[in-house]
Every structure is written in structure tokens, then in C-alpha cells.
Design brief:
Blueprint (H helix, E strand, L loop, with lengths): L1 E2 L15 H18 L3 E4 L2 H7 L15 E6 L3 E6 H10 L6 E5 L5 H8 L5 E2 L4 H9 L3 H24 L6 H14 L3 E8 L19 E10 L2 E10 L5 H20 L6 H14 L13 E3 L21 E5 L2 E2 L2 E2 L4 E4 L2 E4 L8 E4 L2 E4 L2 E2 L1
Parallel strand pairs: 1-5, 2-6, 4-5, 9-18
Antiparallel strand pairs: 2-3, 3-4, 7-8, 8-9, 10-11, 11-14, 12-13, 14-15, 16-17
Helix pairs in contact: 1-5, 6-7, 8-9
């Protein structure tokens, strides 16, 4: 790794860097430059940069902007970052061949990147869809890392929800999940929990309320740039017939979605399947309006959220997180589309499951 200023910043190679991964991703970006007739591309979002750099962490605050921008030209990759970040990034985060350009902490990243570009660089926003397509099909190293993260997140949910009781506060559930996510070297991007009295909320930020007899927990955790998304339910004192019926019907909706997730399908076509499936399975024609339905996953929680106007094609080795939901029910796992079909990544063998359309799907844990 090279730096263009500030003597004393040493060069350290990432011992786990995958050169094949770097080469493939760089080739995909070069193809975008070739098609658009540009000599360089300026990447500015966490999603694009962490994908391209193999999971490098370029944030400080999870709620803040990245602390670097990346200029990819036909010769090399230039990371422009603040002087108080450069040493750590070089030592701990970046591939060895990235050229680092430190900027005073009060300086402008974009001004420096502009001076480095041989001509006006292509802006990331102008090729947003092309970049999504470039990261759709996960490489083997990415698949392995992603599957491991999803297994660990699923295991954390099993550990925590197996030990909770009706009097446990929602915030205590979230705190325990956060501790496990951080301990696995990941970042808790989303932690949701609702007890029985708040089950009407689709995105329930945890409160001090007790769980009561039934609860949901959601974890979205990021490691090496990739985000695992998992929802689980726990119940005390047994189930009612209405609960079992609703849970079976939402699993049937998900089965329809997964069956439509095949190579060559388009996301807008899958969205039509989602809308019709809710009505077929007794949730009504407008249920899809009450919560987003998920979509491709990987380097963003959803990449993108599916709508009637997202025409992206589905490809092999692409990850998805669909999350159909209804009143008091939701199902959500991260899956991978393989040549053999759908492979569920967020699996913990200790969690109870039932077979739905040939896949083992999670049911509510009875404690």
C-alpha cells in the first residue's frame, strides 16, 4: 500500500486479502468505464466501497458518512481520507495495492480526488444500477464469509430467545443481541424487538416494555461489508389456532416468493407475485402496502428494496432477504440463489423448523 504524503505512514498488506476477488471486482468496474467512455469512477458510499475493497470498514459513526472516498482509474485505486484516519486504514483495513492520499482533517476529500482524476470522473450516482449489477453475483470467498455471518446471527438469536421470559424487557433482548453481534466482529445495524402489546408495529424499536406471551426479534448485522438479516419469534404458554393459521399463511406467501426467485426473473415480476400471494393466502390485496417486502441482499440491507419499478434481473449466486409480513406475523431469512435452488444461509439447527415447499423454514420457538 502506498501513501502520497505524511511521512511515517507505513505500508502494511492485509494478510487475508483475496487477489482473485480484487481482480474480478476491478474488472467489473473497468467494464463500466468502457461502456460509459470514462477513465475513472468516484465511489462515495459505504455500499460501493466496501464491496469493491473486499469489506474494508470506512466508517466511524454508523449513522455518518464514510470517512473516505475512492477514485478508481485505469491504472490503480486511490483512497482519499483524512489524515487522522489514514494510518489505521492502511494498517488494518485496506488491500495492499490501494494508494492512500491523506487530507487534513479540515480539508476536502472531493477536491483532492478531483485533482487526482485524469479527466472528470464518472459519479457513482450516475451508474447506481450498473454497480448493483456488478455486485449481484457473489464470489466464492464472499459466499463463504456471508454464510458464516448468517449462521452466527441465527445462533445468537437462538441463544438469546431461548433464555428470555415474559417479564424480559424488549431493550434487554436488544442489548443481549447487540453484545453477541459485536463479539462476532460485526456491527449491529438494526435491532428490533416487540412484545405482545406492541405486535402491531412492523419496525418496533425496542422499549422498556416486557415481552409478554409472544415476541419478535430482528437483527441486521454487518461484517466485511455484508449484511445478514434475520427475524425470529418466541412464544410462551402455547399458541392459539389463529396464531398457527397466520404463521402458516405467511410461510406460504414466502414460499411463493422464493419459488419466483429464479435466474432470469425480474424484480418487478417477483413484486407482482408478492402482491397477488397476499390475497391468495388470505391477507388481503393491500397487505403489501403496509411494509416493504425485501429484495436482493449482500452489501446493503436491501440492494434494492423491490418495487413495481425495479426491473433488475435475478442472477445465480445472488443473495436475497424477502420479508413478507401481516398482522402479528413476519418471516425473514437471508438466502442465496444457487444452481441447485434456494439455499437458506441464516440457519441454526437448534431452532425449530417445518418443511415448506421443500425448504426447512423457522417456526415460532415455544419456551
Amino acid at each position: 500500500m502506498t501513501t502520497t504524503s505524511e511521512p511515517g505512514l507505513e505500508s502494511f498488506a492485509d494478510p487475508v486479502a483475496d487477489l482473485d476477488e480484487r481482480a474480478v471486482k476491478r474488472s467489473r468496474v473497468m467494464s463500466i468505464l468502457d461502456r460509459t467512455g470514462h477513465d475513472s469512477l468516484l465511489l462515495t458510499t459505504n455500499t460501493a466501497m466496501t464491496w469493491y475493497l473486499g469489506g474494508s470498514r470506512l466508517h466511524i459513526s454508523l449513522a455518518g458518512d464514510p470517512i473516505a472516498i475512492l477514485l478508481v482509474d485505469r491504472e490503480r485505486d486511490h483512497l482519499v481520507t483524512f489524515n487522522n484516519e489514514a494510518d489505521r486504514l492502511m494498517r488494518e483495513e485496506l488491500p495492499a495495492d490501494v494508494v492512500v492520499h491523506p487530507v487534513p482533517w479540515h480539508g476536502s476529500l472531493h477536491d483532492v480526488a478531483g485533482r487526482l482524476a485524469p479527466s472528470r470522473p464518472l459519479e457513482e450516482a450516475s451508474v447506481r444500477r450498473e454497480l448493483r449489477e456488478a455486485r449481484q453475483s457473489l464470489l466464492p470467498v464472499e459466499t463463504e464469509q456471508y454464510a458464516e455471518l448468517n449462521r452466527e446471527v441465527a445462533g445468537a438469536l437462538t441463544d438469546v430467545l431461548s433464555a428470555v421470559r415474559p417479564h424480559t424487557a424488549e431493550r434487554d433482548v436488544a442489548a443481549q443481541l447487540a453484545a453477541r453481534v459485536i463479539a462476532m466482529g460485526a456491527e449491529p445495524l438494526v435491532l428490533l424487538c416487540n412484545g405482545r402489546e406492541r405486535s402491531a408495529f412492523r419496525h418496533p424499536l425496542p422499549t422498556a416494555a416486557p415481552l409478554g406471551r409472544r415476541a419478535m426479534a430482528v437483527v441486521c448485522a454487518r461484517r466485511k461489508g455484508m449484511v445478514a438479516n434475520v427475524t425470529r419469534w418466541v412464544r410462551f404458554e402455547g399458541s392459539t389456532a389463529a396464531e398457527r393459521d397466520a404463521e402458516a399463511r405467511i410461510a406460504a406467501v414466502e414460499a411463493d416468493i422464493l419459488a419466483a426467485t429464479v435466474p432470469g426473473a425480474r424484480l418487478d415480476g417477483i413484486f407482482e407475485t408478492i402482491r397477488s400471494s397476499y390475497e391468495v393466502h388470505g391477507f388481503g390485496a393491500d397487505q403489501w402496502r403496509l411494509h416493504h417486502q425485501g429484495g436482493p441482499a449482500g452489501y446493503a440491507g436491501r440492494d434494492p428494496r423491490v418495487t413495481a419499478s425495479t426491473g433488475d434481473p435475478v442472477v445465480l449466486n445472488q443473495a436475497f432477504t424477502w420479508n413478507p409480513s401481516g398482522p402479528g406475523v413476519k418471516i425473514e431469512d437471508t438466502v442465496l440463489l444457487t444452481p441447485e435452488g434456494i439455499r437458506v444461509l441464516s440457519v441454526d439447527e437448534r431452532w425449530p423448523t417445518v418443511e415448506v415447499n421443500g425448504l426447512m423454514r423457522p417456526v415460532t420457538l415455544e419456551v
